[in-house]
Specification:
With 331 residues, the chain is of the alpha+beta class. It has 12 helices and 4 strands; from the N terminus they run H-H-H-E-H-E-H-H-E-H-E-H-H-H-H-H. The chain folds into 2 domains: 186 residues, no CATH class; 96 residues, Alpha-Beta Plaits (2-Layer Sandwich). It has a 4-stranded antiparallel β-sheet. Belongs to the ABC-4 integral membrane protein family. FtsX subfamily.
Length: 331
Amino acid sequence: MSAQAERRAAPPAKKGAEPRGPRAPLGERLAAWRDQHFYSFFSSLGRLAARPWATLLTVLVLGFAIALPLLFWLVFDNARELSGGLREAREVTLFLQPSLGPEQAESFAAELRRRDDVAAVLLRTPEQGLAEFRDLSGFGEALDALQSNPLPSVLVVTPRESGADEDPPLVAAMQADRRVDLVQYDAAWRRKLGGILHFGERVVAVVAVLLALATLLVIGNTVRMDIQARSAEISVMQMIGASNGFVRRPFLYAGFWYGLLGALLALLVVVVVELALAEPVARLVESYAHRFALHGLGAGVAAAVAGASTLLGWCGAWIATARHLAAGRPA
């Protein structure tokens, strides 16, 4: 084949094409990628520090927006634990007729223990009830003036687990028994309490979702304004061949810092609220003879809040930068 034919067969060279050099080793490319991320990580923090008032206002908005559902959740979680013992209490309290003597009360208790739907029966005599009332009320001298004991015998009956959310048949049977003066069974109240707690859980979830969206929008709008302020710089970077990832990276880390600082401020607000309420809460717990203990935020919850807020900041910045880059304009 002649040289002229070889030239005709060869594909035409692209205009302005330059031969590529050898590709850098994987280790060098990873090192360059790491250096770029480290630079964006700290340079974005420096840009936030360069405008302290604007950054402070944004972080304050984010901090209070995150702290509000966090405080709601903390109150709800303590209320749920406080009500746990109340919901698990299945006892039926039977106040017997005052005319029933100790032998008749013991015979009635033995009769109830033989029922298949009864797990345990505790008999409290009038003397035990009066002694307990004396210790709890502090009216010892007034009680000494009584000529007789006015308290009846009390049977505390524990029904067996049935798995149903309805009143056990024992309650209806005891209400119809003539030996029983009053039946105390708070199942209806406990069901209402469960409904209230379920409603509170749903309210906390809805408020958290709404304020999470608000956090996302605040960070996205803040990053969008930052992009507009740096439009000339972005245009120059794109003209010299900067990729979309290189342009986007500093703004993503800015969103990261906004989310993290907002979460730290929210946790600080929650701690301040806990300290402000520590004294009245301690008096409340003491008035209930320390039967329950309120808790604050744990390390796991704090870490989860910080992680979720940081992720929201990253996503908000991604949405803001992707919108401008997809539109084909620097800002």
